[in-house]
């Protein structure tokens, strides 16, 4: 299977960025750990990060044309703002899991709503960097179930 990992704005600053909320691991570290896990599961993982909404949208479109089977995305602040990113997922109909490092339900009220969650296979939040691993496992099980 081909899986794409997308991380949204400010997640390139993981490790330095509010570590008490988002943890001390850098994105490069999280991505490399996840690539090893993907390899062990026999799937390919394409990891990308952008601070730009249009770039994330273009990657969702690209995922459709390049036949990506599943997307794991931490849309960061675009979670709470981007109808455009939601529409991109609706347009391509690629299954995806939404991940947040922090528990978005235990923070400011504006973080509780996600434009993407309704379309997602599932949402994992509050489990820190481990959330990405859980999402990868769940993505692979979801695809295996689909094909059984
Ligand atoms: C986040 C939560 C969002 O509310 C926030 O804007 C982020 C990161 C998380 O991973 O906890 O940038 O998606």
Write the layout of secondary structure elements.
Blueprint: E1 2-7, H1 19-22, H2 27-41, E2 44-49, H3 53-65, E3 70-74, H4 83-92, E4 96-100, E5 122-125, H5 130-146
The structure holds 1,3,4-trihydroxy-5-OXO-cyclohexanecarboxylic acid.
Binding site for substrate: 74, 80, 87, 101-102, 111
Keywords: Amino-acid biosynthesis, Aromatic amino acid biosynthesis, Lyase
Active site: 22, 100
| Principal-axis shape | globular
What's the rounded overall pLDDT mean?
A: 97
CATH architecture: 3-Layer(aba) Sandwich
Q: Within the CATH hierarchy, at the fold level, what is the topology?
A: Rossmann fold
Give me the Rg, rounded: 14 Å
Largest sheet, spatial ordering of strands: 2-1-3-4-5
CATH superfamily: Dehydroquinase, class II
Counting helices, strands and paired strands, the structural category is: alpha/beta
> How far apart, in Å, are the first and last alpha carbons?
14 Å
Total beta strands: 5
Count of runs of 4 or more consecutive helical residues: 5
Count of domains: 1
Tell me the major beta sheet: 5 strands, parallel
Model description:
This protein is of the alpha/beta class and 148 residues long. The chain contains five helices and five strands; from the N terminus they run βααβαβαββα. Strands 2-1-3-4-5 form a five-stranded parallel beta sheet, sandwiched between helices. α2 (27-41) packs parallel to α5 and α3 packs parallel to α4. It is globular. Bound molecules: 1,3,4-trihydroxy-5-OXO-cyclohexanecarboxylic acid. 1,3,4-trihydroxy-5-OXO-cyclohexanecarboxylic acid binds at residues 10, 74, 76-77, 79, 100-102, 104, 111. The active site is at residues 22, 100.
């Amino acid at each position: 299977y081909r899986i794409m990992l997308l991380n949204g704005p400010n997640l390139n600053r993981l490790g330095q960025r509010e570590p008490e909320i988002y943890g001390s691991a850098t994105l490069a570290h999280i991505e490399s750990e996840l690539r090893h896990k993907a390899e062990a599961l026999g799937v390919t993982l394409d990891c990308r990060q952008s601070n730009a909404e249009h770039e994330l949208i273009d990657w969702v479109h690209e995922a459709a044309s390049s036949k990506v089977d599943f997307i794991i995305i931490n849309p960061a602040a675009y979670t709470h703002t981007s109808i455009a990113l939601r529409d991109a997922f609706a347009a391509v109909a690629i299954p995806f899991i939404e991940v947040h490092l922090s528990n978005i339900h235990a923070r400011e009220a504006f973080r509780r709503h996600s434009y993407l969650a309704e379309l997602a296979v599932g949402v994992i939040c509050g489990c820190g960097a481990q959330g990405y691993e859980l999402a990868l496992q769940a993505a692979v099980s979801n695809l295996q179930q689909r094909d059984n």
